[in-house]
Structures are given as C-alpha cells and as structure tokens.
C-alpha cells in the first residue's frame, strides 16, 4: 500500500467487525421485542384450557419470568454492544483524525502562504513609497 494513496473502503476485518455488531444489534432488539410481546400476550390471556386455573397462572408466571430474564439478558447484551462500539470508535478512528489534521494543516499552510504573499506585496509597496518620498525630499526646493 502506497503511503500517499487514499483509502476509502474499510479493511476486511473492520468491515466484518461492523457487520457482526449490526447482526448483534438486530438479534438483541428482535429478542427483546419478541419476549416483550409474548409477555404481554401471557398477561392478557384468559385460560379456556383443561388445566386448572391455579396451575395455568403458575405456568404463565413462570413463562413471564423467563421472558423477562431473556429481555434483561438482551438488554445487557445491547449495553455490551454499545461499549464494544465505543471501543471500536476509539481504537479505529485514526484515519478520520489523521485526515482532519491533514486538511487543517493544508488550510493553515494555504492561509500562511496567502498572508506571506500579502505582506511581501505591502513591503514592496511601502519600499516604493519610501523611495518616492526620499527622492521627492532630496529634489525638493523647500529643504
């Protein structure tokens, strides 16, 4: 890889890592949503089965607890994913930082060159004006 070439695509490992983060995010959100919907269904269900009402309530409560724990696990997984993404951004954003530094350096260098050019022009104009004044002074009849 040439040092002057500009890379616009992510290296294969970073791209794969971002895809895995995306897959984890979708799976965790899907799991939370599915478990939440099932918990709501269990809470609204009216039993018309042959199981006794007490047994059915115990079974529904147990299933709701399991689904709630699944939602908590998915939430914890999402928090871990956020931490992983923060770490990824911290460790892998050097290209953006370097690009911003390079852009700013180029901008400041261009501004410096423009200021130097204007100062040189001003210096030359002042030198010409001083030369004219000096010549006018020495050729003046009012000395």
UniProtKB/TrEMBL annotation:
InterPro entries in alphabetical order: Med22 (IPR009332)
Superkingdom of origin: Eukaryota
Cell compartment(s), UniProt: Nucleus
Entry keyword set: Nucleus, Transcription, Transcription regulation
Example of a GO cellular component annotation carried by this entry: mediator complex
Main location (coarse class): nucleus
GO terms assigned for molecular function: transcription coregulator activity
Pfam families: Med22
GO BP: regulation of transcription by RNA polymerase II
Transmembrane segments: none
Its biological purpose: Component of the Mediator complex, a coactivator involved in the regulated transcription of nearly all RNA polymerase II-dependent genes. Mediator functions as a bridge to convey information from gene-specific regulatory proteins to the basal RNA polymerase II transcription machinery. Mediator is recruited to promoters by direct interactions with regulatory proteins and serves as a scaffold for the assembly of a functional preinitiation complex with RNA polymerase II and the general transcription factors.
Assigned protein family: Belongs to the Mediator complex subunit 22 family.
Protein name: Mediator of RNA polymerase II transcription subunit 22
Organism: Drosophila madeirensis
Lineage: Eukaryota, Metazoa, Ecdysozoa, Arthropoda, Hexapoda
